[in-house]
Amino acid sequence: MNSNRSFALSFDIEDYFHVSAFEKQIQPENWDNLEQRTEANVDLILELLDSNRSTKATFFILGWIAKRFPNLVKSITQQGHEVASHGFNHQRLINLTRDEFKADISDSKKMLEDLSGSKVIGYRAPSFSLSPKTLWAVDELKEAGYIYSSSVNPVPHDLYGMPNAPRTPFLWQNGLEELPVTTLQLLNRRWPCAGGGYFRLYPYQLSKWALKTAREQLDGPVIFYMHPWELDPNQPRVTNAPLKSRFRHYINLNKTQSRLENLVTDFEWDTISSVKESYSIKQVAAI
Ligand SMILES: [Zn+2]
């Protein structure tokens, strides 16, 4: 085992209809009526990881999914992956009251702990929606018993992001650990390089180079993320969504699987909780 593990792989377990980009087209009360594709897509991911170096990853599972597909949480656990929380109903933090958020993160934590039989210490906000306007969430996460969050994407973006947050792991004022999604510093700005739509958009060799370069720049681990629906070119199309949302959601879905296979072969990945043990996080954010 590598004593200084540097690359953490994570998946946000939700279906194609949960994404914030389609929140105006698909209402939560209709979610149950749609074709459910998460289980099959997660099975594909589990098989892919298992057959490539028995790679382990962190699965930030939506409570909504865990409630309907409890066996999925059990499969993830049985294969030795880390179970973490992606909240219950995939609502962006700005759309929740503090009390609603408190219930959301407690209910999802309890359900995942009951199903996995192990303690859940990690949380990722839906759509990286932890922002300067919702920093009360940090105290609620600590209060609910979470040890770390991976909810900050330190880039400028129209839908999310904390462009002034540190690029490396840091402590919030209350001691909660934050492991931001990895960015690349280049030409005087930060570039997203660690997953999601960017991994589908960029040629694989560019992603590989960017991850290696970011790792050299950072005094900390690389945090990479994907979603099960990104490996599913046959998912139903949301045809009435804006062109920009459709472009971001559907580009290169048919290339993700082979790219992910390359990724788990080219780098040595582990869960976020294992990787963060190799680092002592000392920097306290002045946010
Ligand atoms: Zn999500």
> Order of SSEs, N→C?
EHEHHEHEHEEEEEHHEHHEH
Q: Would you report the number of β strands? A: 11
**How much helix is in the residues?**
25-40%
Mean pLDDT: 93
The helix count comes to 10
Structure notes:
With 287 residues, the protein is an alpha/beta fold. It has one domain (7-277): Glycoside hydrolase/deacetylase (TIM Barrel), CATH 3.20.20.370. Helices cover 35% and strands 13% of the residues. It is built from ten helices and eleven strands. The strands form three sheets. Strands 1, 2, 3, 10 and 11 form a five-stranded parallel β-sheet that branches. Strand 6 and strand 7 form a beta hairpin. Helix 4 (98-116) runs parallel beside helix 5 (136-143). The protein is globular. The model has no long low-confidence stretch (mean pLDDT 93). The structure holds zinc ion. Residues 12, 14, 86, 90, 126-127 line the site of zinc ion (ZN).
Topology:
Layout: E1 7-13, H1 38-51, E2 58-61, H2 63-68, H3 70-78, E3 82-85, H4 98-116, E4 122-123, H5 136-143, E5 148-149, E6 170-171, E7 177-178, E8 183-186, E9 189-192, H6 196-201, H7 204-217, E10 222-226, H8 243-250, H9 256-266, E11 269-270, H10 272-277
Parallel strand pairs: 1-2, 1-10, 1-11, 2-3, 4-5, 5-7
Antiparallel strand pairs: 6-7, 8-9
Helix pairs in contact: 4-5
Residues 12, 14, 86, 90, 126-127 line the site of zinc ion.
